[in-house]
Each structure stands twice: as C-alpha cells, then as structure tokens.
C-alpha cells in the first residue's frame, strides 16, 4: 500500500516539503499526494521529478488532485 | 488529461519575466516614478493615501496597476477554471504579516519587485535591499524546515473569493467617477498628489492594461519574487528564479535603451543611501512575505484566484502603509523616518514570534 500524503489546504512550499519528506521516508517506491490547487500540483510533480520520481497517475475530483508517483 | 500550461515551463516563466521587465521599465518612460514602473508596496501605499488612510501629500493615487493585477488574475483563473474560493488559514496572522511587510518595505522604499527594478535602473542601494530580502527569506526557511505553517485553508462560498476583486472594481469606479483634476489635491472623495511620486503616473488606460496583462500572465505562471529565492534556498530549485532574473535583465536592457540607466548610489529616484536600514527594512519584509507564502504581487494574484487569506494579507499591507506614514515609520529620500528603527525592530520580533510559535512540532 503506497503512503498517502494529504497536502490539501496547503499552498507551497508545504506540499512540496511534505512530498520530499514522503519520498525520503518511503521504501516501497510509490507515494500518493493529495492537493487542492493547480500550483501545488505542478510544484509537487516538478519537485518529485528532480528526485527521479514520475507521476504515473493523476485523478481529479471536486477541484482536488490525487497524484500517484513512482520512482523512475 | 490536463491541458498543458506552457507558462509553468522554464521558457514560459522566462517569457513572463521578460514581458514584465520590459513593460515595468516602459511604465517609467510613460509617466510612473523613477525605478517604480511596478512597485506593489509603493502602489498600495499610494492607494492608502488616495483613500485618506494616511495624509502624506506626495503619495496619493489609486494605482490602476494594482487593480489590474487582481482583475487580470481573476480573469485568467476563471478562464482556466482555477478560481477557488478558499480561506481560514490564520487570517489574523496574515493580516499582521502584511502590516509589517509593508512597514519593512517602506523603510527600504520598495517591495521586492521595485528592489529588482531599482537595481535594473542602476540604483546601487538596491543591492542592500536585495541582500536583506534574501536574508529574511533564508531565516524564514529555518522555521519552514522545522514545521512552520499557517494551517490548512478551506473551501468556502464563491462570494467570499470575490470580495477583493469586487473591492478593486470599486476602486476603479471611484477613479473614473472622481478623476484627477490638474492642480487639485482632491476630487470627490479621493485625495491626489499634485507633486512628488504620487503625481507621476502613466495614463490610466495604459497602467490598467499593463496591470491586467501582468495579472493574467503571473496567474498562469505562478510568478513570485519571494518564492524565487525561497525555492532556491529550500529546494535548490531555479524555476521561479529564472523568471526573476529574466525580469531584471529585460528591465535593465529596456532602461539602457530608453536612457533610464543611471548607475550610482547618490540621488537615485525615491531612494535613500542608509545601507544598513535598506538591508534591515527588506529583511523584515522578506521574512514576512516568506512566512505568508508569497511576495506582495503573488498575494494579489492569489487573491484574484479566490484566496481570501491572500486578500487579508493585501489589506494588512494597505493598513501598514497608513500606519507607516501616520507614525513616521516610512523613509524618504532624506533617510529613515523618526520611528523607522523602532518599527523595524518590532517587525523583526513579530516575525520571530510567529516563526517560532507556529511550528507543528512546537505546538
């Protein structure tokens, strides 16, 4: 089960910091990040990419995004 | 699945920085004060003066650029379905951060945008301001690393997100109802400057159009002059920094071509030469912007997207401008105001208090 990070309600830098913390803490190569604004979505994906993690799935519902990312 | 937003690519943000830099420098050519093509702090201060919240006669004008920033961002966020009414993330703290951000900026005489434009115009004093800004942001990143945040915001009624945009529309209506009458310091309920920086402005329609364009592009690209340095310090990420560098270089070249580049420290427009206080004022402002999550421009753009907390920060800045001029905290080209030192110390202590006490690990 991938670790889920709930960054809804936060503006950057918090979602990015939470994502990077999650990446360094997980050991199964997959995390899920929940955000509720486009800037956070873009920043989380950009920051994860800098660590070699890629978004494998992005689900959108009620103005919220569920981003699944895996170690590339 | 999602339409690609080209403005958040490296070339996108560079293009936005270049456009802002060129038009900011041109606004000076077209009437705005020297090295003040765009200054969010100065312009909100001028709005405070036009409304009579302070009575510094030389800085009173409802700046259409500010109206344009909010409405341009509103239009863009509605068009691209990014408008979200939200709020409730420590509004009182954001309000006071706005107050002290403005006071710090007025000790330096400019916000981060103007610090960059001052440098692009050859004003060496801006170097101390920018160093202060970076130091203030750097201090704030220590709090962020140890769990600082202002808490989650929450979705709210759509109308709540419209409050600041509607207020800006109201300012525009006032500006049209009570236009400037040459030589008169009042028109209807508005105050105007007949000399000084408040009397220097590009034509209303030009200022408004550029403001709308900048608001639109900045909303798309998430342009932020504080985030540029914060992301560099926190994450070694250059994305927003590219935009700020593009702004600096584009404004510098435009100034050079337009004959507006005058290198030096003395007699720079709307600036003083007290290096330490240029540094310290901007340090407080930088901390406050970083703790609140955005430079004063970004706060206006987020307010245009429906962020009520950013709107509260903007109102805090306008309040701070009133206090800064009423209490003699703001600087002038002669130097710092009589109570400027005390204000910088109090602002610094306030930012430390917020940073230390609002950490999840400390709570």
Beta-strand percent range of chain B: under 5%
Q: Please state the CA-atom Rg of chain B, rounded to the nearest Å.
A: 19 Å
SSE succession of chain A: EHEHEE
Range of helix content of chain A = 25-40%
In one word, what is the shape of chain A? globular
- Which pair of chains forms the biggest interface, and how many residues does each contribute? A-B, 22 and 28 residues
- Strand portion of chain A, in percent? 35-45%
CATH class of chain A: Alpha Beta
Oligomer: heterodimer
| CA-CA gap between termini of chain A | 18 Å
The fourth-level CATH homologous superfamily of chain A is TusA-like domain
Can you give a write-up of this model?
The complex is a heterodimer of chains A (72) and B (363). With 72 residues, chain A is an alpha+beta fold. Chain A has one domain: TusA-like domain (Translation Initiation Factor IF3), CATH 3.30.110. Chain A has 2 helices and 4 strands, in the order E-H-E-H-E-E. Chain A has a 4-stranded mixed β-sheet with strand order 1-2-4-3, with helices on one face. In chain A, helix 1 packs parallel to helix 2. Chain A is globular and about 30 Å long. Chain A starts with a strand and ends with a strand. Chain B is 63% helix and 2% strand. In chain B, helix 3 packs across helix 9 and helix 4 runs antiparallel to helix 15. Chain B is mostly helical and 363 residues long. Chain B has 15 helices and 4 strands. The model of chain B has no long low-confidence stretch (mean pLDDT 96). In chain B, the strands form 2 sheets. Chain B has a two-stranded antiparallel sheet. At the A-B interface, helix 1 and helix 2 of A face strand 2 and helix 10 of B.
Give keywords.
heterodimer; A: 72 residues; alpha+beta; four-stranded mixed beta sheet; B: 363 residues; mainly alpha; 4 strands; globular
Topology record:
The complex is a heterodimer of chains A (72) and B (363).
Chain A (H helix, E strand, L loop, with lengths): L2 E4 L7 H12 L4 E6 L2 H13 L2 E9 L2 E8 L1
Helix pairs in contact in A: 1-2
Chain B lengths: L9 H20 L10 H11 L13 H16 L6 E2 L3 H18 L3 H9 L4 H21 L8 E2 L2 H4 L1 H15 L8 E2 L2 E2 L12 H18 L3 H11 L3 H20 L16 H18 L3 H9 L3 H19 L13 H18 L6
Antiparallel strand pairs in B: 1-2, 3-4
Helix pairs in contact in B: 1-9, 1-11, 2-14, 3-8, 3-9, 3-13, 4-12, 4-14, 4-15, 5-6, 5-11, 6-10, 6-12, 9-13, 10-11, 12-15, 13-14
